[in-house]
Amino acid sequence: MPLLANFHTHTRFCDGSDTPEDVVRQALKLGFRHLGFSGHMDPDIRMDIQAYFAEIRRLQKEYADRIEILCGVELDNVYDPRCADDAEYLIGSTHFLEVQSEMPMSVDSSEAHMRRLAEEFFGGDYYKLSKAYYDLEARVYDRLHCTFVGHFDLVTRFNDSMHFLDEEDPRYRGPALEAMEYLVSEGIPFEINCGAVNRGRKKELYPNMFLLKSLREMGGEILINSDAHQKELLNGAFDQAVDAAVRCGFTHVNILTKQGSGKLHFRQLPLDRL
User: Fold this and answer.
1) Which end of the chain, N or C, is surrounded by fewer C-beta atoms within 10 Å?
2) What is the pLDDT of residues 88-139, one digit of tens each?
3) 14-25 per-residue burial string, b: 16 or more CB within 10 A, e: under 16
4) In angstroms, rounded to a whole number, what is the distance separating the alpha carbons of residues 229 and 227?
């Protein structure tokens, strides 16, 4: 049975290509049983959150007998969590670093932007940059009280092309593992994020295999999400993510649902049934 759920989904309300209703129709076409929308709220993308909430609530009512729809927000670590008080769930993501700059400085917008971030604020030392990223990432739950962690190692977004980090180097792995261990101790699940893979931007999923195996050894929990910005990629790279989870020793994946209790909770799906 394929995985029929996704909780990291973007639409025209932020930087996605399709309307929310187009995405719902695609989800139904794929046989999805659960769909969570997660519009961006961060220093670069400030969508009309009230209009977004209103549209997702309309779809929840219209399609209630066919699919469970949840209204979430992908909230950046440096943004004000009060903007998303009415969201049903939060993805805690770190895109931006806390540096003194006139413009927000993201680790995933472009190679040129990443190079400037390293050169202007970290003396060209990408290991110092990655440590600052993970020091901030470690606080994502304390700051946002998010439902799960989004694309944990996003700082490597351009590493396949720029080769600025040796991802086996202790200077990189040490801060990453420290952040992961702290977040696991807080009981916050991590997503396996397929977005960069299903858009052809990276070879490896987030987290990479070493970090994913480490997450399993620490007792961490996972969801699998496509980070879809186009409806056609709603289940993009799910097979690869399931395979990676199994190879790292995970026995189940979590989904978000209100079914049964009426309150949002995680439900486990055995991976050997997917």
Assistant:
1) N
2) 999 999 999 999 988 889 999 999 999 999 999 999 999 999 999 999 999 9
3) bebebebeebbe
4) 7
Under 8 Å between Cβ of 136 and 77 = yes
* Count of beta carbons in the 10 Å neighbourhood of residue 178: 15
Contact at 8 Å (CB) between 182 and 214? no
Beta bridge partner(s), residue 222: 190
CATH homologous superfamily, domain 5-273: Metal-dependent hydrolases (3.20.20.140)
The per-residue pLDDT for range 70-96, each reduced to its tens digit, is 999 999 999 999 999 999 999 999 999
